[in-house]
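INFO batch 0412 | record 1 of 1 | parsing
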Amino acid sequence: MVIHGSYFSAIARRLTMPFLSRLRSASKASTVYNLSSGLPDPELFPFKEASFVLQSGEVLPLTQHLIEKAFQYSPTNGIPELVKHLTDFTAKLFAPPHMSERGLAITAGGQAALHAVLHTFVDPGDCVFVPETTYSSFFSTLETTEGKPVIVGKDRYGLRPDLLRDTLERSSSGRRKLLYIIPNADNPTGSTLTKERRQEIYDIACVYDLLIVEDDPYFFLQYGSQTHPSFLSLDTAGRVLRIDSFSKILGPGLRLGYITADKHFTDKICTLIAAVTIHASSLSQVVVSELLDRCGYEGFMKVTRDISLKYLEKRDMVTQAASKHLSGLCEWVETDGMFLWLKVLGLEDVTEMVNHTCRERNLLVVPGSIFQLDATQPSPYIRINFAMITPEIADKAFQILSDIIREELRKEELER
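INFO prediction complete | emitting tokens
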């Protein structure tokens, strides 16, 4: 098992939970003479009640009691009802070893969770291992800690364990601290790690004493017949910090995510949360808690399956449009998630083409270079988000893209 205190950053070791945050977490509704923290009088809130109409047509009411809770301060780790729902869901979904020793901290979205994790564990110069292409905001968030990103190679199936081991063997400066990975429907490539790779990566992390930051916002957008296990499911040593998010399933405007990890880790992470946001939105927490209370585990799983099937239809539609217009110009593979990762053939770098020519023709796509540590380095890749496009838009957009690529190839030929 890990020695928890040895992983914390210097700032995390210095921080303790603010007195008022501790007081809010400890106070009970039955307390008669609560003259302590700076809670405003809920009877003076301008909001009295609200309701949400669900896709099914059912109404989810927020009574006056719930409105008071939704607009009031809440415990730093989250309102107790939602924490219990998510803890129970995590236990059922992933069956982690030693679940009773784990804690859960609700955050203001997955990005806030990532920020809290990195600042809890990374000191200047610490080595954080990361796939060669990944979520672009990871690099800017890591930069705020002055940690040292160490790039690990990957292929169409995700991060390669053999290259992770080789990279760890070669790393000589800075403490090896974390591995960051998006295991399912990777952003930007859409790849999903196999069960075998996950186990091999976990075993390597144990040998080299790495913590694994498992950032998994696309878990429910896996399109195979069977979902893959979380690293949390393999975590016998308590070294996985799992980040979940409701952004891709319930909506990013909720700004709601959560971290599941060894309780020593989540307790310390909460001191960072308290110092920055105090807690995640109470309103969002109450709405999601009521939804989960209404749906139950099986009902929520049905919601996620229905959403996944809709995105699968979109993926199949967009790959058909790509086959029609981009065959011979680009390479791609069918992926999970909501992205198509195109490799443009014959062009070393498409960044200028994407940022200028495509935009001039009202086509917005993302150059692959921004998902690299050094975005100034060439990349022949383009990321397509198909979540919001119709067949008509896909057909027209890929026609425009194919015309642009052909023009760029002709220019390249003339310049040779």
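INFO post-check: The longest strand covers residues 102-107.
INFO record closed
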